């Protein structure tokens, strides 16, 4: 058996993870709504043999767009565009379980899976922010537990719809005029507290059997959801110890759902600032940091903490105690608080440590240093790979692909060619069998 | 001013409008879920300088898929794929107003408009069939009037969201760190009986101002909806007189909404079977007809009429009176009944006249005959162009482009090159101004 391989996913966060990324001289401020930008970044990732690109999402204006670039384009349209202009790379898009119908989402991802030859993945999110809720008839976001209950049922329905066509249901025999063997197309007849869906889907089974299900969310409910349904997770961890503890917890929870721990690929977020020397990398970080207006950083921090910005004083620590927010992104909240408390940081120092609003772990250094860090996490079992967040796109990714990837490859940690053609192949995940498929008598008795 | 020009749209109905299209020797039965097929057909239409391709849709299995090819792929994913592989042709996709959220749909089409450089169109349908309703938590379809009330409010919200960014709201000025001028990004603050949507959209204004709104539906409610909101309509008319009467009625209704009659492009459906001689065309039609299993045709006719198939006797006329169906497609129902009654046809003759389930007007003949027919309808004011439904795809479209289009061009009826770059340009529709845009003092006083 070949040694365990690293997985690399790039978070295609419009202009890059730094709020100031759009202000660098080489950046095109219009990139966030230029489909050509998304295609170019995906092609660079594909050149670097990455597993996948990932598009975060939120169906609302919920950041300070007066200061910064933001998630705007609807992800599945972007992924279809990228599918048509790439050949190998996986395509993961975020879609909310709170503000959609499961039939539509199952269908959209199976269509994307056909469009891409089996490269699609769905990042299921419950969408916590209040701005989104107001675009869908609610005056505030659903309570945390209620969102996850909906999300579980939603995902159950989506997975059942994925399975509603057996692999060989399509016949297409011209001589006998038999188009579909409808005995192999199954109603799902779901009736639950939130959804009633008859099925079947009106799309033949996806090339991957099921598009890959991805999840990001570190709360107790989020971990439980991931343990039950996710095949890859985007996580937030600031240290190897946190990463190892998370992995151990998640694999134990998965076992309680009778799932193998190997069936989930764990990908912590990793923001990168690369220089040919450490000093050069630090200068680049300083430049990015200085281009973030302080008004933006304060507003962003207040948003993550869900408190009034006037409660934040630049040269004092965070208010203590902080009220636990009801509708915040739990993972981002806890990560931010941990950084502040651990270093006993003032608000100004915290903002700097967060990269002006990055939120995930940032590593600033040479290609060699970054490769060392990645290898250490990977070998310690704190990560199966990373959800990479380049400081600036495309330049930060281009540098990673040209300088860090060759080191990882030379160490035997990362592929030099794609071995398979689907996202499941890249992630080393099995192709699921439809729950409705009857085993043939020969197989059953074997 | 240049003479009035014909508009041509192709209904990219998977294998073609004939239920037996997939059984012809040259047809690929897998075409309905092969994105490459959709791309090839769109590229042929673009070679023929067509205005647009159109994708019908239904979020359910609601035809006899044991016998025939069907609408399966989610339309906006297909259109994004086609956008990436074509340069000029318009991209119209069907999305239901009953089973979606307006924020998601506005966002999806504006994203598609950015992805295609201003070529997107949304065909708003209310989705009448019961099979669809069962995939979205209902036990039967909403009543006709209720569907249209929702559709109107849905479309109001979508149009307001289209307008929520003024053209010059995006700034992207690196020096001043000003990314968006948020005074030009407007909440829509919609609160209605069916939807509450705060807005704004999180996507800059579409290249077309608004993606083109399309509608198909000949009922009284459908016509009223079209008069209020549609910029292009797909209609069903069997004679020039019907076409003229429809156009007159629609333009009068539009006037009552203070809209110019010229602001709506009327495109009756036209199924074509082309041969180099009339006899050859008739032989092709016979072949297509003989390949439709009679069991399918009976099931399909019973479905259109919403009656029990056992009430249909092959060698007798339709039952008289027929119960008026509550949840059928009104246009298809009335069109079918009209053909039967006008010709005093038996069920077998009716099925043949319907082409085994085509439903729209079928013309069978030489390129010259088809061009003559199109010219006569166009000059009589019965059509601004046609929603073309080739018998078989891609072959029926290829023949049309190679033989009928040159005749229409030589008569000065149809473009020989694209004059503009957007779907609005092709259709001759104005680019709307955002309802939220303040006229500058200079302009206001001019």
TrEMBL record, chains A, B:
Keyword Nucleotide-binding: no
Record-annotated Luciferase-like domain positions: 33-382
Keywords: Flavoprotein, FMN, Monooxygenase, Oxidoreductase
Cross-referenced Pfam families: Bac_luciferase (PF00296)
Record-stated family: Belongs to the NtaA/SnaA/DszA monooxygenase family.
Protein name according to UniProt: LLM class flavin-dependent oxidoreductase
Organism of derivation: Bradyrhizobium barranii
């Amino acid at each position: 058996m070949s040694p365990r391989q690293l997985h690399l996913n790039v978070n295609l966060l419009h202009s890059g993870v730094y709020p100031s990324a759009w202000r660098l001289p080489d950046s095109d401020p219009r990139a966030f709504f230029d489909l050509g930008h998304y295609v170019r970044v995906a092609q660079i990732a594909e050149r670097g043999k990455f597993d996948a690109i990932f598009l975060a999402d939120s169906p609302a204006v919920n950041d300070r767009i007066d200061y910064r670039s933001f998630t705007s384009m609807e992800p599945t349209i972007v992924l279809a565009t990228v599918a048509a202009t790439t050949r190998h790379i996986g395509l993961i898009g975020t879609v909310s379980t709170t503000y959609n119908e499961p039939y539509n989402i199952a269908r959209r991802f199976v269509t994307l899976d056909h469009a891409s030859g089996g490269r699609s993945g769905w990042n299921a999110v419950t969408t916590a922010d209040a701005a989104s809720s107001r675009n869908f008839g609610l005056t505030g976001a659903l309570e945390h537990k209620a969102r996850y209950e909906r999300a579980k049922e939603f995902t159950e329905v989506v997975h059942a719809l994925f399975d509603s066509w057996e692999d060989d249901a399509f016949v297409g025999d011209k001589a006998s005029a038999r188009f579909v063997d409808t005995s192999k197309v199954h109603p799902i007849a779901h009736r639950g507290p939130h959804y009633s869906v008859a099925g079947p889907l009106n799309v033949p089974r996806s090339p991957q059997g099921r598009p890959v299900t991805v999840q990001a969310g570190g709360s107790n409910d989020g971990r439980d959801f991931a343990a039950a349904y996710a095949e890859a997770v985007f996580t937030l961890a600031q240290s190897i110890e946190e990463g190892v503890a998370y992995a151990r917890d998640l694999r134990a929870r998965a076992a309680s759902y009778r799932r193998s721990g190997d069936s989930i690929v764990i990908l912590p977020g990793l923001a990168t600032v690369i220089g040919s020397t450490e000093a050069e990398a630090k200068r680049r970080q300083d430049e990015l940091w200085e281009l973030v207006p302080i008004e933006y950083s304060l507003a962003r921090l207040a948003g993550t903490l869900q408190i009034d910005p006037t409660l934040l004083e630049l040269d004092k620590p965070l208010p203590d105690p902080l009220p636990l927010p009801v509708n915040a992104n739990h993972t981002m909240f806890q990560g931010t608080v941990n950084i502040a408390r651990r270093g006993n940081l003032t608000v100004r120092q915290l903002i700097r440590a967060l990269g002006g609003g990055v939120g995930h772990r940032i590593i600033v250094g040479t290609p060699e240093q970054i490769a060392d860090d990645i290898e250490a996490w990977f070998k310690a079992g704190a990560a199966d790979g990373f959800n990479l967040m380049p400081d600036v796109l495309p330049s930060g990714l281009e540098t990673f692909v040209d300088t860090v990837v060759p080191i990882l490859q030379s160490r035997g940690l990362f592929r030099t060619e794609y071995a398979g053609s689907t996202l499941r192949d890249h992630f080393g995940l099995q192709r699921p069998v439809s729950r409705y498929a009857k085993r043939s008598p020969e197989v059953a008795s074997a």
